[in-house]
Amino acid sequence: MRLDEQTRGDFPILERIVNGHPLVYLDSGASSQKPRAVIEAMNRYYERSHANVHRSIHTLGEEATELYEVARDAVQRFIGAASREEVVFTRGTTDGLGLIAETIGRTLAKGDEIVVTELEHHSNLIPWQLVARDRGASLKAIPVLADGTLDMAALDRLVTPRTRVVAFTHVSNVLGTITPVVEIVRRARAVNAISVVDGAQAAPHLRLDMSALECDFYVFSAHKMLGPTGIGVMYGRRAVLDSLEPGRGGSEMIKEVWIDRAQWNDLPWRFEPGTPPIAEAVGLTAAIEYLEKLGMERVAEHERALTRQTLEGLARIPGVTVYGPPVSVDRGAVVAFAVEGLHPHDVAALLDADGIAVRAGHHCAMPLMRRLGVVGTSRATFSVFNSPDEVSRLLTAVAGLRSAL
Amino acid sequence: MSASTPSAAGGVYSDVIRERWRKPRHRGEVAGANAVAEDVNPLCGDRVRMMLTVGADGRVEKAGFIGDSCAICTASADVVSDLVVGRSRAEAAALDVADVLNVLQSEIRPTRMRCVALPVSVLGQALNGAKRA
Asked: Which terminal CB of chain A, N or C, has fewer other CB atoms within 10 Å?
């Protein structure tokens, strides 16, 4: 059975009729839909077990703590982290990247260098701009080549002994480009720089293994991988987390407090100030279990087939430009395209009239848009529940667009 | 389940928007413009530059726009240009989004209201001399 045939019934929202048409949801790259298992797990938690975690000495508090910490074990397993202490919960990818930038930022000095890439989402660019400005550090970017891949020849030149951080995406949220993580991480390590990987688009699509990627930090959101909004993961390599002061202060992250000083809590709680997103952690566990049951290899294979069908189909439509690596190169479940003579927002609005949800605009990657020479693009992204029929509906609709306005 | 057809656009955009998008009357540089401003819509990256020639009597003599923008924003910029010609500075500055919507005759969703509003905002900037480009 095809993956979508197996999963479609699990997503209540797919029963919706939008503008007179069955919903075709091709915007999981922005935020995926949720299977019933996730929704019900969160409801069950709120109806039966909710309390604050860690210091509530009563039955519900203990249940909530247990459920919250079980989520950490699920994430550790899902990403192949060496220990649960390496799994820190955040509010999402943006929050995680901001936390890392603030934390590492405190250790930077004038003249230090931060290297990013032209592929970056603003979430992995702006925090570094702020840090660079505050610390007098410089910010450099690995260029993107015409085929949507990184200019790896520039890597050795840009990463120097002054480089303290190399922050880059695993999968481009616009072009779908899969970056050579291990190669970049090794280059960073060679100069003792900390590597930070934005995994927002990779976590829902690829099987992750931190021990293979060897990066220092890996960050992603639950809501793009069938889980709830409001929670994300900051994986940090133990040795690196141990070496860093907490970036943010508050409850939970301390052991003992005096008026003028405090002793930090153990990992991972040292980096989790305040009441965490508990129900969201429960939902994340359910999402991970759902994906594990499907198997991430199978998920990747399904989404790869849909991506290929889309790329090949769009290439046959006159006046349509597709961005990113050629169809022969593996990429994430992301296809950005333009329709000649139409603005991306109009493309999205016209497709919406057919019940098809795509993203349109700069995708929070303005430097990349500038590199592509466009204001924005339209973007279709895929998840486990999307079907080849839905891709066909997209292709038919796109083919009719040029005469539509 | 039907494919997108030309009629689909009719449901999305009014005839006024479609016509102004296909054949804007005021798109292009305005030679000798003396009130100019440009701004972007942070939501989508759309960019509009409004150019006005204001005469010695304080009346707008010519108006035009250029930019990268969607159909709604382009139609709005075209309508704004239409409406300000012949107005005094103060009358032109008083133009608001409701005036533009009145001409566009289209149901605009909340997420697209900024597409209508951008040219109106840029007009204000041009007349105030703020952010002069």
From this structure: N
